[in-house]
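Lab notebook, bench 4. Still working through the backlog of constructs that have no structural model yet. Next entry is a single chain of 237 residues. Request: give me the structure tokens for it.
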Amino acid sequence: MPDDRICGLNAVAALFARRLDDVNRLFYADPLKADVGLFCAAMARRRLPYRLLPPDELERVAGTVHHGGIVALANPRPIPRFDPADPPRHKLLLALDGIGNPHNLGAIARSAAFFGVPALILHDTADQAFPSDAAYRVAEGGLEQLDLFLTPDLPGMLKAVEPFYRTAAATLAPDAIPLGSLPRDRPVMLVLGNEEYGLLPEVEAACRRRIRITPLGPVQSLNVAQTAAILLHDLSR
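Model written out:
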């Protein structure tokens, strides 16, 4: 598999902090020379290449103009299967069903890390975005701060974790309860769905609760990344 390209100072710093042994090459622009000394020293100790590049070459390596002046090439991160019989025990977990836009995945991961969510579960389907250049860039290091898991059967997993978590589907359904009405007496697994069609019916049906954000104006819905930030802010308190 080709290396992941991870761009941006915050994303690269998180990569070096969490997965130093996966980093294979480092490239940076002249304005960031003062910021990359520790990264370069780590690469030198491991006898791996690092180089200052002119803008056109850095853009070519990054594959985007939005590289923030630094690009690291790293081994792709393996994502283990989630074991519903022995799930991690936390106050709040997040599961994604068919979030197809890598920018949304990155933004959700950034919010999850910001609010202290320790793990993110991805439904292993064709519609689901996975960590990628764009997702890493938008996440600003958030993807590196989260434990990532895959599940091939999200409905089955949600039913299996009921002894451990209160499963809550974010939905626009009119009969969903307002977010403030969700009981907080046990850990929560929040489930978010696809940008266009929401959660798969079988995924929504597998959740014990359905919650919604009550609109206060004429626009009736939010981008899924905005929804995630609002819900995680409330649920993490």
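Notes after review: Residues 102-114 form the longest helix (13 residues). The chain has a mean pLDDT of 95. Flag for follow-up if needed.
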